[in-house]
Amino acid sequence: MRLALSALLLFTALPAAADTADGESLLAMDWEGIVAAAEGGEVNVFMWGGAQNINDYVTGWVGDRLSEEYGITLNLVPLTDTSDAVNIVLGEKEAGADDTGAVDLIWINGENFRTMRQGDLVWCGWTDALPNDTLVDWDNPSIANDFGVPVDGCEAPWSTAQFAFGHDEARTPEPPRSIPELIEWVHANPGRFTYPAPPDFNGSAFVRHVFYHAAGGPDALLGPFDQATFDAAAKEAWAILNDLEPDLWREGETYPTSITQLQQMFANSEVDLIFDYNPSQFGVLVENGTFPATVRSYGLDGGTIGNTNYLTIPYNSPNKAAALVAVNLMLSAEAQLEKARPDVWGAPPAIDLSQVPEDIRAEFDALPQHPSVVPAAELAESALPELQGEWVSAIDDGWRENVGR
Question: Which domain of life does the protein's organism represent (predicted)?
Answer without folding.
Answer: Bacteria
